[in-house]
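Please go through the sequence line and token line underneath and see whether the fold suits the sequence. See right below:
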Amino acid sequence: MSSPTRIAKAKVVRPRKAANTLCRQTITSRESELDSARLVIVEAPAGFGKTTAMMQLAEADQRMGNAVVWITLDPDDNDVSRFLRVFSLALSQAQIHTAPPTEEGSRNADLADWIIGAIESSEHCTSVYFDNFEALRNPVVIDLIMSGTHSLPPGSRAVIGTRRQADLNLARLRARGELIEFGANDLRFSLTETQDYLLGQRKLTLNEIQIQRLHDSTDGWAAALWLASVALQNNADPDATISQFSGSNAAVASYLAEDVLAKLPERLRQFLLDISILNEIYPELCEAVTQCEDGPALLQELYRHNLFVQVVDEHSQQYSFHALFQDFLAKQLEDQDPDHRRRLHARAADAYVSQGRAVPAIGHRIKAGQSAAAIDLLLENLRTLLNDGRLRLLLRFIDELPQEEVLQRQSLQLIRVWCVAFTRSPREALTLIDSLDPDKGSAEEQANLLVLRPMLLGMVDEIDTAHELGLKAFEQLKEGHYFANAMLAQALTQTSIITGDHDAARRFVDNARGRFSQGAGTFGAVLAESAEGLMDLMKGHLQLATGRLRHAMAAFAASRKQDRRGITLAAIYLAEALYEAGELDEAAKLLVTYTPLVRDIGPADALISAHTVHARIMWGADQNTALDLLRELEDRGHALQLPRVVASARLQRAKFRLDSGDIDAAEEDIRSAENSYQWPDMNHRWYVGNDTLTPEISRLRLALRSGRGSQVIPQLRDALKEAERTQHVRRALKLRLLLAEALQDDKQRNLARRTLGRALQVVDQEGFVSTLREEGPKLQGLIRELQPEHAQAATQSTPAPAQPPGKAGFAIAGEIPTANMPNDPLTPKELQVLSLLAEGLSNIAISERLFVSESTVRTHLRSINLKLEAGNRTEAVVIARRLGLII
């Protein structure tokens, strides 16, 4: 069986505009607002013309010069991998880019990066249309869309069409005037539009009274008006038809059954009902299902009479149902003959099997009642589906199967546990394990079950129990079960790091890439690099950590292995390392891409790091967005029952409160964080998300900002001594900076200078830009006063590249040879861009500050790099400082 990832072209092609489509005035009146909109939402029940309204908006976008990308969503798009493949196909269809990653070798991360890069690098602004948005239930997919929407370049936008209200957290977009909303009342036909539609588009002969009565009875509902117009064509008694017609859903259903379906020729009526089981309509499939030989002719006849189907692609004869009517037709078929409906599904399954398309075949097998065949097909394609990350699809199939058959197969129950753990909740998965028999099933299934519990316990932050059970499982696990060994190695590596047994952590990663996991060599190598990079980061070896994590990402990119959980964690911790090094743009891009992938499952440290680091990046440019990220983190902590996550969100918010001078609010947040989680001894815990985000450090910073710095000097010294003893170097750096500030407050100037100097040695050696910068203007002023040679280092946002060891990022003034001034001087606008770049602003923030598009900013940056002969933005800032172009 070939890979089950074929995507129907109909999903990424904008529907054809019908000849009798009416231009809606409510849309036209707001087209001028589109250029400032980042998101447009068209929300109304079925039959109100959402898709038609979106098509009118798309025409307006094209007139403005935007490239239009169209995606018609369906329930299968709740799988992240499928959604990203659909999105990449839609971009190619719209000619945004011509070379997406190949489907067989690509991973979710590759596709997400390619999509973001394609839109950012497009020479045109891009408008992405998501029709049938109500089909999405997976918060990861929804988060990907919303995160991407917030990061779209100026002039680009997302347009969402949905039948139901979506929980999208629109307050920020609404407050900024970047949101346009159309509701059901906006889409109702006015009396004038009703008249224009019936007389002008449908060519009916009606008087004003008849039009008014029909408008009143349908309440401006577009679908009902269309049905009424069908009934009134060639009708000898329009008054009688109008008096009997109502626009309610029940009346329309009755009308469809009695006046439309009943009046069709029997052969055409039955053909229409039979193909209603299909989500894609093309002649060969219709003929296979209905066992007729004139499918193309019947489809053409339905289309000619404007009966329920519309053309998607005329060349390939692909059609789709009008959204309002497919459910109605399917219900009519079920009521007419349930056995016949199951036979139709069986034929559809056979047709898809013959095409090598397992996913739709499994779905039709289940609906046909052929559960045994569906299970066989599912297990046959299990590895492909797992490698494609289609866990939600697998879970949906298992939930749709007869549960008595699922309970008889340990393999299906294990798949369910795995899918639940990574799509809904690790805690829910833990409850499902209790019903499984550890002695049942194949040896491989027993091995997988053995390691699931410690792995899941680690995901829900029950570290000590997870570690203890993991060690017991390690003793019992036999060689040869590569997948189970790889999972257990990952779990024990993480728990060993957190408990501070780093020698054990290295042994487990060696096992992962060595004799225990010969079938998962790449996974083991990447696990080793990620784990050691994580330890290096907390031990202060920033450059080494960054190199290891980059190597881990590159190894996965070159691998056919599909453990996205591993690559996601490496990406988030790489973003944290890049943040520390001042590479804010690259860090933010990684976080936008990968944070949604841990939103619903954790683990806790990945959630904390992803949100708090992103919030710190955003704080200088957009405080509302930073606080929104912390609110989301707190909400996820509550939802996942992870109290450390909740407490960490409050500690970071306390830091922001102090930055704003709100001492009382900061103290309240710290107290709340202390009460919401029973914090362990943090000197013996290596939580990467809480390396410098601890109640103790928060309390000490609060005392400093409250003018009580001299009082906490003994506590700062004790905390620093303990951090150094346990080799928490990054934490020690933070404490040393705070101690220098406290000593200065206590008038111990010389000691403050020496303390600060020792901290800046670490900064110099490793390039911890953000740790230095995020303590704010008071510390920066202290550096200017006590260590003037490092004054630039305290304020610049990125370290200088390629410096010799010991001078990475913070060269002392006068030690760098003066470069020659550029032959082509920078323009005033380029100097403005360069100055803002030196402040650490992102491209988007610069564009908003200068009131230009982000593409214009990129153009200026390319010109700046060319004139200064710089390899990147970091080097451009360093060269400009040498030349005295910026301060």
Remarks:
- The beta strands are 39-43, 67-72, 126-131, 157-162, 179-182, 309-313, 318-321.
- The mean pLDDT is 83.
